[in-house]
Amino acid sequence: MNTSRIDAFGEDVFRNSTYIDKLDLAFSQFFVRTPTGSLLAIATGMRADFPQLKTNLQGAGFDIASVASLIVPHFESDEMGALPDFMAHNAALVAYAHPICAHALSDIFSVKTKILKDETPVTINGEVVVPIHAKHVHQWDSLVVYVPRLKALFSSDIFMSYGPVDGEGGTLDNIVGSIDKSGYIPSLEHLASALKKIRKYDIESIFPMHGAPIRTHIPETIDGLIEHCETHRAVVAS
After folding, report:
1. Which stretches make up the ODP domain (predicted)?
2. Sequence ranges of the domains in the chain
3. Could you tell me which residues come within 8 angstroms of residue 201 by beta carbon, excluding any fewer than 6 positions away?
4. Which of 56, 156, 187, 226 is most exposed by smallest CB count within 10 Å?
5. Chain segment 180-210, per-residue pLDDT in tens
């Protein structure tokens, strides 16, 4: 059985999640209430799930048309599949993405796109965000998003874990086990490179696409995951 819900984290972060019991995996989309009052979406979810997402947002007091901008972490159905539905509710919607992804979105959906450069802050609807390219961490066009005002990292498939979205995110062992089980992370070398970039930011909350948020022991978790990548690579190389 699939279950869907929306949760608030503080006053400005909202997560819509759909848990698929058969997969033991949740798929989440995030909405940041920006200083202008509009919503910045991070990932669209899959197109078949859009009606429930819209209903969930309405239940939380938001009109889907208030989503003025959308960040697509990479070109995949759970990250951009419902883009046409968002566009149908706001013709002025702007999609932000990695250069590879942005060109594809523009060509296929005729959406206005803006390119996000690696670790180059950009202001979207009054909200400063820092895109961090995470090449080949799942896809070549992958990125994660840091929001300095909230000290929050929206980490896409990095830090994923199986299970529901309740409570706190998985321990390091659970994250490593989930990565190994899923096969979502094709390159430990590239994952380690992305984590080293992420490590220097002041992060108080990590919101993964799959699994519960992480809000404790964040530096230790990042360091442990880097160590896992480097140790595993050394074992394979030998």
Report:
1. 36-211
2. 2-237
3. 130, 146, 153
4. 187
5. 887 777 788 999 999 999 999 999 999 999 9
